[in-house]
Amino acid sequence: MGLLDKEFSDGNIVIAKVDDLFNWARLSSVWQLGFGLACCAIEMMATSMSHYDFDRFGVIPRNTPRQADAIIISGTVTLKMALRIKRLYEQMPDPKYIISMGSCANCGGPYWEHGYHVLKGIDRVIPVDVYVPGCPPRPEALLEGLLKLQEKIRNESLRKKSA
Amino acid sequence: MYQYFYDLTGNTIIATLIVAVFPLVNVLLVALIGVYLERKVSAWIQDRIGPNRTGPLGLFQTVADFLKMLQKEDATSTEIDSKLYNIAPVLVFTGSFAAYAAIPFSSKLIGSEADVGIFYVLAISSLVVGGILMAGWASNNKYSMLGAMRSAAQIISYEIPTAIIVLSIVMFTGTLSLDKISDMQTASFWNWNIFGGAELGLTKFLMIPFMFIGFLIIFISTLAEVNRTPFDIPEAESELVAGYFTEYCGMKWAMFMLSEYGNMFAVSAIVSILFFGGYHSPIGYLGNSIGVEWLIPFEQAFWFLAKGWFFILVQMWLRWTLPRLRVDQLMSLCWKYLIPYAFVNLIIIGIISLL
Amino acid sequence: MKSAEEIFDILKKKFGDAVLSLDKDTPVEQIISIDPLKINLISKYLRENPELQFDSLMCLSGVDDANGIKVKDAEGNEIIEGGTLSVYYNLHSVSLKHKITLKVSTPRNDPQIESLEKIWKSANWHEREAFDLIGIKFLNHPDLRRILMPYDWDEFTEEISRHPLRKDYKNPEFYQGMKVPY
Amino acid sequence: MALKTEHMVLNMGPQHPSTHGVLRLELEIEGELVNKVTPHLGYLHRCFEKHAEAMQYNQVVPYTDRLDYLASIGNNFGYALAVEKLMGIQVPERVEYIRVIMAELQRIASHLVAIGSNGADIGALTPFLYLFRDREHILSIIEETCGARMLYNYIWIGGLSHDIHPDFVRKTKEFVNYFKPTIVELDNLLSFNKIFIERTANIGILPVDTAINFGASGPTLRGSGIKFDLRRDDPYSIYDRFDFEIPVGKGLMGTVGDCWDRYNVRIREMEQSLRIIEQAVDNIPEGDVQSAIPKRIKPPKGTVYKRVENPRGELGYFIISDGTVNPFRVKVRAPSFVNLEVLGELCKGNLVADIIAILGSIDIVLGEVDR
Predict the structure, then answer these.
(1) Which ipTM did the prediction report?
(2) Which chains neighbour B (Cβ–Cβ under 8 Å, 3 or more pairs)?
(3) Which residues neighbour B59 within 8 Å (Cβ) at sequence distance 6 or greater?
(4) The pTM is what?
(5) B9-24 tens-digit pLDDT
(6) N or C, which terminus of chain B has less Cβ within 10 Å?
């Protein structure tokens, strides 16, 4: 399991079709790790609720990192929390994705200058796939972020990457 | 069933294969449709739309989930007891899958027409407890451990009222065979056990209230046996993260999920066999009235599935409406209320049957 | 209902020198200054005296007064030497509905104040916070640890970046391998 | 010979579904029984007080939004009142009315999340979604006024950032009429649900004197049966003009001060907020909402402690001004921070499942606890 770590050298038609199928599966069922950090978490919750309904895209919150495919870093990451997020990220099975939601997670947000305990951007600790700007981003913005992530997944491949 | 397919195909191997594969297909279908329905039903209850991007009406959502889980890395902690950890999901799945062997889908579609069908189902489904305990222990995670302990206590306790109610039905019908129990309730819904069985007379009318009580008790306790809300404390999300399968990912976790939905259908099937006529139609058969003999088994399968799915929907409805009980309240509900009532019910049904 | 002057008179009569002064200049709040090592006795009296009944500690704020001399240390950082750190207590009586603000000041190089944890439980975390962010030591506190900053903050940082709310605080470059400044 | 036993230490959080953010609880458990709860804070310490010292007075307002992010307007309100008191600004009537309406709308929105997540912790997920749906109505009313959904920067020192929308009064009335039956529906669905009562009644009982000694405030204090509400007992703004009641815990389902009481106080408070809105919305006087905003905010030297009744309790701002344009020190007395301290006391001897019920009934927001 974890097929993405097996790379095939030549891209034949079978691989391409299998690619498409598997990518479709992955992008249609992005299960998020359900945990909120700060203000953005409320908007993240609002996105899952009746008005915006994240479930339409197949996104459901899972509470354990083992069963999740994506983390939505929703809010300010402090130095104390960053280490825990890193550990959670490491506990997730591949393939895994990160959506950085809100200015704080992107770059420190309003806390960039005097925030002695704020990590200025979650990308200093874990790799980020999609950045969603805003403070906090509207639920529509987060949905857009998910669509961008789906776009990214759609273009992934089992083939070996060539220069 | 074997005989039926042997007559149909004239080949022992094909007949055996069909007989063996049918329940597996059914379990997979139940899980596939069940997960989709769960999400849709919850969405409807919660004023949402639910999955609608994958295929028409989001019908392929579960397929996508399943394919995705196939691709997931098998990430495990280094501290696990890997033997038990790997066996546990298989055991849990086996427990729920094996129960299907004795469940009659129609008069022809039954894996094994064992004379001790109901006894077998009760016994084999206890295998699940072992698997859950193993999963909780081997994960080396405190949440898993707590979840497994809760689950073991819960399933074992709730087997008692289930067994007592089953016993009262066995006493009433005089057989352990699920096939025969179903066959006694034929012709019309008025003959179902919940309406006092097929024999007309005073006993039938005396029986009705006690049969209703019996049905309620067995429905509640089977609900608890398959860990559904309001009895989902072993996997209580807000307390124990994900309970005994916290550490499982990918396909191993999918097996737990499969067995959960498999179990849901199994207990719904048992309830409908014991009280609601099993595969028998409530209104008579089309095959009989137009004289097409071979249609009848298919009609029976339809009614059986319909009844099973009806109870699954009730389970979902409950899940998305009710809060969760606490572990001690769960135990006191079982030992202080369900078991005494079930006993009294058993005695009264026994006395009425003697009349 | 008692005004700050009346309360000051009551305290002055009872405790004498431990009650230092009543600051009337501030436009809004009137503040009674108190000896940092007697604050627990006075608080106990304030809570238990039937005329006062200050049964609730609304707020406890540690403040760096920054009234010392600014000097450069060996590495060229500007630090403050001498002067005081202060703690303000905002008390309130739920039953009598009057309020009072107390203030204690303690020298910056050895800041020590008696803990009020025994008198108002709510002081516990507030004092931990003042210890964490300002660096005031509360005597007889049952559990004086950092509360907001990481427990191992001291291990990874210099002396000057121990207590973030001091006016001469300087950000550390790294904490556990993570870059702290932008 | 007695067997040697060891307590299991269970770490709940910082990533846990029911710690309402990034709180970490260290539970010492014996089977399912909890012997000791130690909260560990600081996973969301965003250095508000340092920022406040570095910013000018009016620049601090957006940062106050992010303290209790579920009740941003309440935070703005308290801060603006504190600075206004320091500077001696009298704000126009119209501003006062709009502030009160907005604060009460925000209180309802905040309680909706509190109640919903309390239910969700206990396993009733559906009411949570219903309440979020209702919250969207409030958010859209406020959004129409000031353009933001959650963090508004709406109440400025001496005024407001925007005047209300022409449709505001009609929409607010519509909302009040829509929301009244919803509370009844909520009562039927969750409050008087047998299982919910079983889970919350007689759990986590907080006696009045303990509550006061711990400095608890808001619904946590009133759940213990004492009528103490700053809107009534230390009136600010124009709250003394309105007629409303202060709901307190009466022990309807168990003992006074249990989780159900605290939960119920929140629901009844929403009803009272609706009453205040109804009274205020018809009487908004005409005027300019920005006329009293000072050109340059430079308060005189001095200290001020101003407190307001936020949805979670007494929110106090302690501000020291040294006569410059930057505050010398701003300390926030956050209601959740103080209320959370009670948790250790309440949880002793309860089961693991009760911990989350108690935590939900205290209703903390980590942005405010850690600041």
Answers:
(1) 0.85
(2) A, D
(3) B36
(4) 0.88
(5) 777 787 778 777 777 7
(6) C
